[in-house]
Amino acid sequence: MTSTDPATRNKDLALHTFAEFAAGNTEVLRTALHDDFVEHSPGNPSGKDAFLDFITRAQVATARLELARVIAEDDYVVMHYRLVPSDGEPELAVVDIWRFADGKIVEHWDVVQHVPVPAEVPHGMF
């Protein structure tokens, strides 16, 4: 049974997309992204096709992604996760903010920072 609550529907879509992408299925974004997709993160291209080309070659496409939490409200889903690069680069803490329209991701923002050594964050990042 599909939920009629937009936040629940959007959260379910985001979790499905995240799980598929984390498992190596970068093509899942082709159906998840809205045709009018807008990227708000500096340095990342906007537009569905440009973003797909970028993200499938980006570090995140081959990294291990460890989801810590998901928050959904109305048309927005926020995902907080650890990104462990496959090339030995430092781990990253990532917060993605997705806005949904018509059952697809139409906008994206993110905040990314390096995960410091444990002594610098005694209570952890996640």
From TrEMBL:
Xref: SUPFAM superfamilies: NTF2-like
Cross-referenced InterPro entries: NTF2-like_dom_sf, SnoaL-like
Coiled-coil stretches: none
Pfam families per the UniProt record, alphabetical: SnoaL_2
Domain SnoaL-like: 18-108
Tree of life domain: Bacteria
Name of this chain's protein: SnoaL-like domain-containing protein
Organism: Nocardia uniformis
